[in-house]
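Worked Example 4.2. Consider the chain below.
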Amino acid sequence: MAEAGEKETRSNEESTDESEEDESEEEPKLKYERLSNGVTEILQKDAASCMTVHEKFLALGTHYGKVYLLDVQGNITQKFDVSPVKINQISLDESGEHMGVCSEDGKVQVFGLYSAEEFHETFDCPIKIVAVHPHFVRSQFKQFVTGGKKLLLYERGWMNRWKPSVLHEGEGNIRNVKWRGHLIAWANNMGVKILDMISKQRITNVPRDDISLRPDMYPCSLCWKDNLTLIIGWGNSVKICSVKERHASEMRDLPNRYVEIVFQFETEFYISGLAPICDQLVILSYVKEISEKTEVECCARPRLDIVQPLPESCEEISSDALTVRGFQENECRDYHLEYSEGESLFYIISPRDVVVAKERDQDDHIDWLLEKKKYEEALMAAEISQKTIKKHKILDIGLAYINHLVEKGEYDLAARKCQKILGKNTELWEFEVYKFKEIGQLKAISRYLPRRDPVLKPLIYEMVLHAFLESDYEGFATLIKEWPGDLYNNTIIVQAVVDHLKKDPQNRTLLRTLAELYTYDQRYGRALEIYLTLRHKDVFQLIHKHNLFSSIRDKIVLLMDFDSEKAVDMLLDNEDKISIDRVVEELENRPELQHVYLHKLFKRDHHKGQRYHEKQISLYAEYDRPNLLPFLRDSTHCPLEKALEICQQRNFVEETVYLLSRMGNSRSALKMIMEELQDVDKAIEFAKEQDDGELWEDLILYSIDKPPFITGLLNNIGTHVDPILLIHRIKEGMEIPNLRDSLVKILQDYNLQILLREGCKKILVADSLSLLKKMHRTQMKGVLVDEENICESCLSPILPSDASKSFSVVVFHCRHMFHRECLPVSNTVSSVQFCNICSAKHRGPGSAVLEMKK
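Applying the procedure from the previous section yields the following structure tokens:
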């Protein structure tokens, strides 16, 4: 069971019983404080007997017959001397303008707090309860009820006279009454009744469960949750009743309303009061326990529980034991629970104390989380509710969280949280950095230091870098790579690295880092030297980025040794900065690298390095023979005689064959193929490429005494040379491998050629016939001759202006027109005439197709 801590300001004279607080991880739902100020003064001389709560003020009744009006802080605003004995009940209407008071000596008073309206009555028995109509302020609702041995209803009638009427009697004293809307609920010795004031009918009777309990010692607690829901607490039993309308078909002689018990359950202790909170209940319980010392039953501290009602049971949400003054002497009837609906305030009244319970807000929730050292949850809660919290600041919670993590030794997490919590506050950042330095954890915070907006003092970053330099070269190198160079004084860090290199000159990590620092400092030459020494992959990026081509003119060999592919690509991409001649000159003593460069240059452009093609012959022959033949084929600037000489010296047959054929010495090339390579297929292929009859003759002569060669010729010669020439020259009796297959292939090739010729002939004939028909159709078409046409010879109009005169015109298929007399006389025997113009231009037949005469 969780205990609620008391929040109060105690005077030196106050003495309060204190108890130990149980440790619990469950957060309480309510917070508590004593109602002090005027209440403290009252209860030092008197004892509280009852209290009622309005949203504007409180009304407290005492055992000495006084009624005090208090503000919510407990300050006295008004005092009424009602009776010399105990005040039993105080009732207020909803407006808070009228009050009803009853006392143990039978006095009842109903009066206006702000008017002269007043009612006095004295009964011959103690009056336990009084309740004014909720809308008493209105003239039509000037009603109130009192309860002693009878339940009386007073109504103001004619001439402002009050008329009493008995609502109920005969079942003992009336112990409690609650009026809500048109319903009055009251409790007597037998149970709880509800009266409908509209129909003046009693609509229910809820009997008391435990009749063994004295009703005066364990009184009934009543509370209206809303206009139709009544909560009853008596002994250790709780019932929640709902008032419902009866269906018209069920009316008969019954009231038009009835009550249904929707929830019913029992509690562990005796109920002194109850109140609703959302869909849950707040229950004030009277507790008895066995004393460990005397083993006698005694009064314990009262409990305030929040429970969730269930149909036949309840679920406990929270439970707090309250330390009130004089709880050891109190009985169940001495405690009361009142509440303010609008603000969810709950007042626990006892003779010597008034405690206020209220729902915990976000500030209280954060307080509890901080108390339990749940800093991350507290920070999250503060961020979510930053507009509503008043007591806490997100930054303060965050700083406390960082300190807590540091104390636990979770340095990395603490440093990570600095990013979010410290934000852009440079002073706090610097303070935290120095704190991490004191505990030797600068490395932990280094990864999270701000690098842009905000930027800390250079000294902070230098301090971190020095810490890494002393113990972790790799970590130091990582920070240099990740941090912008303007965060710290580069000169100071460079000098520190140089000092460390004196102790360890070959440390590659420090050298690489020094090169990066030189780059930040724009001392690119020094950075380049280190990168080349280290053969670092970033050297080419550095050259490109900072245009360091002038610095590498004498370092080309180093670059090529490091990565020839990247170096060559870079040099060729920047020929305007480092010329081809300069590169070739620098590589003069490294011919293998020179070849790589010139080869790549040739691949890009066959003509740019033409002056070095003669040199490249030797380089290809020495370092890259597979690419020599392609080079010889693609180069138009290569001296053939020089190339032939080198190839013959090195006995490069294929290259020599190519050069001989290119120089026109095909027979020598063929001879080399036959003699050196002895490859008949390659020889045949070569002869096909040259397409020279003499070469075929030489090939046949060379092969005639070599059966394998003859087989190769027979298989491949059929489409280029008449096979009969070869067959006639074969000596009788010579054994030729696969001769039969070769002869069959020759016959098949011959048949195939015949079929191809016949097919081509058919296609040719068909095409010729088609074209002839097309030409005939074209020539049969008429030709328009009109006044706009002219004679191509005399250039005068082809038709005479006088249509009556005779004329003769010749029109050719080419559309040229002549007067008959303008055409020259043909010297040939044939009568066919040709167009002079088209014949002169060799444009084909232009014979006359039309002769017009008149």
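The radius of gyration is 61 Å. Confidence is low (pLDDT under 50) at residues 1-23, 843-849. Compare this with Example 4.1 before moving on.
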